[in-house]
Amino acid sequence: MRTFLTTTALALSLLAAPAGAAEPTQGGEMIVTYKDDVSTLDPAIGYDWQNWSMIKSLFDGLMDYVPGTTELVPDLAESYELSEDGLTYTFKLRKGVKFHNGRELEAADIKYSIERAVRPETQSPGAGFFASIEGFEALTSGAAEELSGITTPDDYTVKITLSRPDATFLHVMAINFSFAVPREEVEKYGQDFGKNPVGTGAFRLAEWTLGQRLVFERNPDYYKEGRPRLDRIVFEVGQEPLVALLRLQRGEVDILGDGIPPAKFLEIMNDPEWRDNVVEGGQLHTGYLAMNVTMKPFDNVLVRRAVNHAINKDRIIRIINGRAVPANQPLPPAMPGHDPNYEGYAFDPEKAKQLMAEAGYADGVDTELYAMNTDPNPRIAQAIQQDLAAIGIRAELQVLAQANVIAAGGEKDAAPMIWSGGMAWIADFPDPSNFYGPILGCGGAVPGGWNWSWYCNEELDALAAEADAMVDPAKAEERIDLWRRIFLRIMDDAPWAPVFHEQRFTMKSDRLGGPDAIFVDPVHIPVHYDEVYIEDGQ
Amino acid sequence: MSHLRDRILGDRVALFGLTVIAVTVLAALFAERLAPYPPDRQFFDGLTLEGAPLPPNGRFWLGTDLLGRDLLSRLIFGARTSLIIGIVANGAAVAIGALLGITAGYLRGWIGTAIMRFTDLMMAFPALLLAIALAAIFSPSLWIVALVIAMVNWVQIARVVYTETTSLAEREFIEAARAIGAGPFRILLQHVLPHLLPTLLVWATLGVATTVLLEATLSYLGVGVRPPTPSWGNIIFENQTYFATAPWLVFFPGVAILLLALSFNLVGDTLRDALDPTQRGREP
Amino acid sequence: MIGYIARRLGQAVFILIGISLVTYVLVYLIPADPVRQIAGRSATPETVESIRRQLGLDLPLWQQYLRYLGDLLQGDLGRSYIQKTEVATLIASRLPATLELMAGAILLELLIGLSAGIYAASRRGRPADRAIMVASFAAVSAPQFVVGILLLYVFAVQLGWFPIGGYGTLWHLVLPALTLGLLGGGWYARMMRSAMIEVLRQDYIVTARAKGAGRFRILFVHALRNAALPVVAMVGLDIGIFMSGAVVVESVYGWPGIGQLAWQAIQRVDIPIIVGVTIVAAVAIVLGNLLADLVAPFIDPRIKFRR
Fold it and tell me: Do the chains contact at A438 and C164, CB–CB below 8 Å?
């Protein structure tokens, strides 16, 4: 469900090998621990933070990102061209790329794979990303058997025609849902393809013992010279984060898939012996309080602004031991379009009370706050509850399972306020448009949608469409500027109270090598599996 | 009943149980006066600068939780939650169980069979799973949690009451009452129910222990009473990730749950010994 | 005996159908749409509707249920909505861990409970007896999660004798099994004690004593065999209870059993898993009781198959 980004400046740190570090070596084995078993490794289905980057190492798409950055580069494609009208992309495929079963990749595989993700029978959560391809509606409604917009003039050429210009299209060609799968294997395994994945990626699946472990082994036919660096990766599942940490400290584990357990976080960060094993980075995440603009009292913009002034973000960040930075706008600092000069709503309960009085709620008001029931979300919700009580908003807490909160958010009159933690928006790809459409645009403000504030500003929707039609690379700067304006206008209307942006803390063993950027890679969680290596002599 | 009083007061173990229950009841009744702070007040200086909870100290006698609230105050108010649920949920379970058990045992016929078949079905239901699923379905509040527990706990009571009623219904004095023309309702009220009272009393006491534990378990899984209402179970749920660094956050509420459940069990057991005619007079 | 088993199994089928119905209706009431969970955030309304149709979730409840029941009677528990894997495969993958914990827990329960119960009965009325009885009450009054967390804290974190949760070797099993064994042992101790006292009072013991048989022989040959009946019934119950997953202990220790599977499924409204686990657990409860009833006559020849 997520893709991440840090600044492009990290690319530089990756290209320049760190002085004094050992030369990258080839071979060796790395052990990664997880608590939960992996749900599926089917690229059309997998959509959680755990399988997202595992799939990236087993499969490839037309496009990819430079390791450690958000810079797009061709991957299975050798090159691409965009037509004058901005509607047709022509990809030239790399020759000699082989699936793990030995067959060579052809243009038809790309067409098949994208159509498979769109086809309703697949039940892919990513189908909607391909909506700009011509023929999308016909295929999803069952009127057609294929996407008329994708053609294969020869075995190494894929032509994709869009029904509208889409500035994010190349990002879409880099998300997992578009990755190439071999038809014969998909048909052989049917619904169990996710347990028997066959791709073109740097690793292939060697073993999967349900509930215990998965083993990836190096794909000897991988097209990229010198990658992957490791021979094997062992994923041990069913490992409690606390146990995993102790094992890492004993040298038995290399990466904590679930991160540093909260209770041990302060201890590790204050321990000079282990502090250096932790790499910190930003991520494309925003935790926010959504206020339903169609429900009282949040139909009044003054109340929504008052809430923005009332929340003590520093205290909330303290409650989660400083694992985040305060937020004052929807876009996280690492996202293009974030405005570092915007000051937002300062913590000011007096001003908030004044706004409440102006809005006609001098005596306060009763409402409800929904939150997910996994730690630390109930605690954060209680902190928000206390802050709101101080300005007269008496919110009753509804702490529910994730599915129930999402269901309430998708109903127009159900949830006046939702704390997004645990379900929070993490970008699918590093582009500001991904932070708008489903969660702040009119398109998401529908029954079952994800726009929990039910904020729908048609003027901004028009501006957003305009921005996403700017496909000319020369206008990229202008486009980002337009997005910046859109998000600041949203903050005026204040349908959200942005609270914080989570930081990432990856803990690694001493023997793992590689530049810091790949340990907080914006698109690979927890690390970029193709790029890490075992340091010499270990 | 003086016999009963002597039995309980004469038994040191039962006396201990009664004392704990009395203390808990007092804490629940006078929580506002006894607690040093409001239970949901988050103190800014109740956390270290890094956000860690404070260990027990002069200001917060039992330390603070992960939101900087006073643990002692939360425990005192938590007694109220536990008792309300213990009494309401268990009262409802006993009422449902008694009603169905008596109906099935006295009326027999197809209604009785249907009720007992349904009880059999519920006996085969994985109870904890059922409770969790129910609590997750209905957004949990104090009353919903009580209801869920009652829906899980009535089954056993119904079985016991059924068995006793069937054997009572065949006894001579019931036959006699019937012979002199007493209606079924009157027989139930005047003859059957009084004989069931000891059993119900024992179950009502022992059941509170089960209920207190079940409430704590649901809260521990995050599907119990809704925050910020403190319950001994949800105090542990909210703080358990820190058990290695702040064990007092698990230890104190844990001991409270244990003591209360233990006390109800001890008192209930003594009651059973005192009231059960088949056991009366048995060696100590 | 064959006829008896057949009759009991027949009853079991009805109970299971009833349980599947109740569970299905309950899950249907959850105010969350599983299709939305599957379809993700960027789904179009058409995709959502088409997924709903494929899963048959657009049908009225009774049709959905009949469909499910039809599959169930053929042994098909369906596929997980979220993981797309056969529910039967998922449950099977959790079975080794569940069975291991069950075996460990029952073994410890018996070991702790029976020895404490026998000892208490032999010291009836003395301080040791009273102490054991209070302790057994404390055991059945202790919340599993508190005992679990405390054992974990003392023996794994502080002393480092055992791994801090997880699954794998016999060492991993000790603490979770001990948690369940200590608490369950309380019931066994009480039951064993009263059964022993009852048996010890019976005439033939007196006779045996008169004949000069040793104390040891009295206790173990005569009494134990007779007192074992309720214990066997209780083990039967325990099999059923542990099969539905010791949700709490599993979550404290990160034990990858059926309980964790069910808990995750409840959180994500993965209906096929919730219903599947409930049914498998109910099967275990029914079979556990049946097993106990079947073993009883071998322990005590006076008992005939009932009903």
Answer: no
